[in-house]
Design brief:
With about 250 residues, the protein is of the alpha/beta class. The protein is built from 6 helices and 11 strands. It has helices spanning about 25-35, 95-105, 125-145, 160-170, 210-215, 230-245, and strands at about 5, 20-25, 45, 50-60, 65-75, 85-90, 110-115, 170-175, 185, 195-200, 220-225. It has a 6-stranded parallel β-sheet with strand order 7-6-10-8-11-9, with helices on both faces. A 5-stranded mixed β-sheet has the order 1-3-4-5-2. Helix 2 (about 95-105) links the parallel strand 6 and strand 7 (about 110-115). Helix 2 (about 95-105) runs parallel beside helix 6 (about 230-245) and helix 4 runs parallel beside helix 5 (about 210-215). The relative contact order is 0.15. It catalyses: uridine(1498) in 16S rRNA + S-adenosyl-L-methionine = N(3)-methyluridine(1498) in 16S rRNA + S-adenosyl-L-homocysteine + H(+). One of its GO terms (biological process) is methylation. It is found in: Cytoplasm. Its main location: cytoplasm. InterPro entries: Alpha/beta_knot_MTases, PUA-like_sf, RsmE, RsmE_MTase_dom, RsmE_PUA-like, tRNA_m1G_MTases_N.
Length: about 250
């Protein structure tokens, strides 16, 4: 089993090199000692979530919430090419966290919540802030679980007009749409670098008005296959397809 991953503050790994003793405290240190029960000599990975990682073993355990890591190697991952962003319409219930979790584990690079016209759930006020915090926490924990060094940021929720701007700036823009005239995503021409932005609509589908706005921004409709996936799983399936087709899984 690969070493468990623990998150440190961005920039904390600057200047860390093999032979460094790195202290891990706070909530992550408490989780490592009291929940994971790591002991001296066990392997551990540290990351800032921005592509930087330090690998080593537990050198000492101090109390219930602190340990020291003897760093044996360090690595910085370059930004992935092409970068994959999924614009996720807000599902009802906890299906949003499910979508974020599985997309993060699969390898998506960024997630954008979208308040689509046909979304049953709408993020407003304190409830919206709590929902966004849950999505971000889910992405963070899923990034650690899947042993990633670079975690996908979860943006502030966007309106349809804001999503259109994002699509217009992409090197490849697509809207998952189940209608028969939609081209298969499996045969779409994809860029070797730059950005791919994919829109996943709500359970009720993307409205004709939204499709028109996105088409004006350069986003064509595509389908995954003959079956219709739920909004909470479509983004994960599409991300896997794109990662395979772009060679990032090769």
């Amino acid at each position: 089993m690969t070493a468990p991953v623990f998150l440190v503050e961005e920039g904390a790994l600057t200047g860390v090199f093999p032979g460094t003793l790195f202290p891990l405290g706070g909530p992550e240190g408490r989780h490592a000692v009291s929940v994971r029960r790591l002991r001296v000599g066990e392997e551990i990975t540290l990351t800032d979530g921005a592509g930087n990682g330090a690998f080593g073993t537990v050198a000492s355990v101090e109390g219930k919430d602190r340990l020291e890591v003897a760093v044996t190697s360090v690595r910085s991952e370059p930004l992935p090419e092409p970068r994959i962003t999924v614009v996720q319409a807000l599902p009802k219930g906890d299906r949003g966290e499910l979508a974020v979790e599985t997309m993060t584990e699969t390898g998506v690079d960024a997630i954008v919540p979208w308040s689509a016209a046909r979304c049953i759930t709408q993020w407003k006020g304190e409830r919206g802030a709590k929902s966004l915090a849950k999505w971000r926490s889910t992405a963070r924990e899923a990034g650690k679980q899947s042993r990633r060094l670079r975690f996908p940021p979860v943006a502030e929720p966007m309106t349809t007009k804001q999503v259109a701007v994002l699509l217009a700036d992409a090197d490849f823009a697509a809207v998952l749409h189940e209608e028969g005239h939609s081209a298969p995503l499996a045969t779409a021409g994809l860029p070797a670098s730059g950005s791919i932005v994919l829109v996943v609509g709500p359970e009720g589908g993307v409205s004709p008005e939204e499709l028109a706005v996105f088409a004006d921004a350069g986003a064509r409709p595509y389908r995954l296959g003959p079956s219709v996936l739920r909004t909470s799983t479509a983004g994960t399936a599409a991300t896997a397809l794109l990662l395979g087709r772009t060679g990032r899984w090769s």
